[in-house]
Amino acid sequence: MIAMELQKAQSGIRGLDDVTDGGLPRGRATLICGGPGSGKTLLATTFVAKGASEFDEPGVLMTFEEHGDEIAAEVASLGIDLDALVRQKKLVIDCVRIERAEIEETGEYDLEGLFVRLGHAIDSIGAKRIALDTIESLFSGLSNESILRAEIRRLFRWLKDKGVTAVVTGERGQAGQLTRQGLEEYISDAVILLDHRVQDQISTRRLRVVKYRGSHHGTNEYPFLIDREGVAVLPVTTLRLQHTPPGGFLSSGIPGLDAMLGGQGYAAGSTVLISGGAGSGKTSIAAHAADAACRRGEACLVFLFEESGAQLARHMGSIGMDLDRWVSQGLLRIHAERPSRYGLEAHLAYMQRALEAHKPKLVIIDPVTDLITCSTQSDVHSMLTRMIDYLKTAEVTAIMTSLSEAADDADVATSGTSVSSLLDGWISLSWQRLGDERRRTVSVIKARGIAHSPRLHEFRMTGDGVQVLEGAPRPATSVMEATS
Question: Of these four, 59, 428, 476, 482, which has the most CB atoms within 10 Å of its CB?
Answer without folding.
Answer: 59
